[in-house]
Amino acid sequence: MGDRQSAFPKNYQPTAAEKSVLAECRKDSNIRGLLTGSVAMFFSSAFVRRRGIKPFSFKGFFTLFGLPAAGFYFGALSYQPTCLQKILALENSPLADQLRTFIDSQVPQQYHSKLYEQHGMTAAQQQQQQ
């Protein structure tokens, strides 16, 4: 499992455009995670109050802290396709090239056009990238 080799050296330094896109992705995914976590916190606290569950019991603790944590995680995770689209849109980016290579080698061929269309690339752009 740990024998996979990366195409990037360990000391790879992202370009300025890659750094800005990655920073924007980190910020936006955290915002989305906080929003979904807050909504989950609101509903879980209302659930605990309405059901009369003691907040310091296991069930109350899980409801008040576990569900909002899961909401944050899934909210941040839901931003991943948007981040991938932003990275794939970068021109002259080794990171974008590496992602395209990974998609071409690991994703079955029947899903290529759908994946590229999801990420804002037409079939002509896909062929041009290859």
Brief overview:
The protein is an all-alpha fold and 130 residues long. Helix content is 71%, strand content 0%.
How does this structure look, described?
By secondary structure, the chain is mainly alpha-helical. It is 71% helix and 0% strand. The protein is built from six helices and no strands. Helix 1 packs antiparallel against helix 2 and helix 1 runs antiparallel to helix 3. The longest helix is centred in the first third of the chain and has 36 residues. The relative contact order is 0.13. The model has no long low-confidence stretch (mean pLDDT 80).
Secondary structure: elements and pairs:
Elements: H1 16-51, H2 58-77, H3 80-88, H4 94-106, H5 112-118, H6 123-129
